[in-house]
Design brief:
With 171 residues, the protein is an alpha/beta fold. The protein is 34% helix and 30% strand. The protein contains six helices and seven strands. A seven-stranded mixed beta sheet has the order 3-2-1-4-5-7-6, with helices on both faces. Helix 1 packs parallel to helix 2. The mean pLDDT is 91.
Length: 171
């Protein structure tokens, strides 16, 4: 696949989804990460990509064949009450995780299976450092009841791995 943004390739590499994993991408856009994750989770894994934009979901459908293992849906997160549980939920450059409201990460926690992971990737505005972005994401996730498990960085992209506190203690 050509034209893969570095931040997307880095995110999928950092998450390292395993075969058989059940994955949700919040804000899947044109479906680039969906395709990369699908390669890694294999025929027994599933990925649901959601985006609030019908135009973006159309692009994602052109890039990814829907069928067993891949579903793409126009939806506003967190309006996905009955589609969990997931092993892995992730978001790359999603404005809802910039809002400062813990409602979105709290809703994600309700969709994670025990031991599940939430990854949030973002980039700072041009000309600013990456440190404040990782601290902002970490503070938001902590306010929503997550334990911060890891932070990764490549170039200007920062990723924060978190698990719901009850889940982190069990997993």
């Amino acid at each position: 696949m050509t034209g893969i943004p570095d931040r997307v390739a880095f995110a999928v590499e950092a998450m390292a989804p395993r075969p058989g994993t059940r994955v949700l991408e919040i804000g899947c856009g044109g479906g680039v990460a969906v395709a990369l994750v699908r390669e890694r989770i294999g025929p027994h894994g599933t990925i649901l990509g959601v985006d609030r934009s019908a135009t973006q979901i159309d692009r994602a459908r052109r890039r990814n064949r829907e069928g067993p293992g891949v579903e793409l849906r126009v939806a506003r997160f967190p309006d996905l009450a009955d589609c969990g549980p997931f092993d892995l939920i992730f978001a790359i450059d999603v404005p809802a995780f910039r809002s400062g409201s813990p409602a979105v990460p709290a809703a994600a926690a309700a969709l994670l299976r025990p031991g599940g992971e939430l990854w949030v990737f973002d980039e700072p505005p041009p000309g600013t450092a990456t440190g404040p972005i990782s601290m902002r994401i970490s503070a938001l996730l902590a306010a929503a009841g997550y334990a911060i498990v890891d932070m990764v960085e490549r170039g200007r992209t920062v990723g924060v791995l978190a698990a719901p506190i009850g889940s982190a203690e069990k997993g």
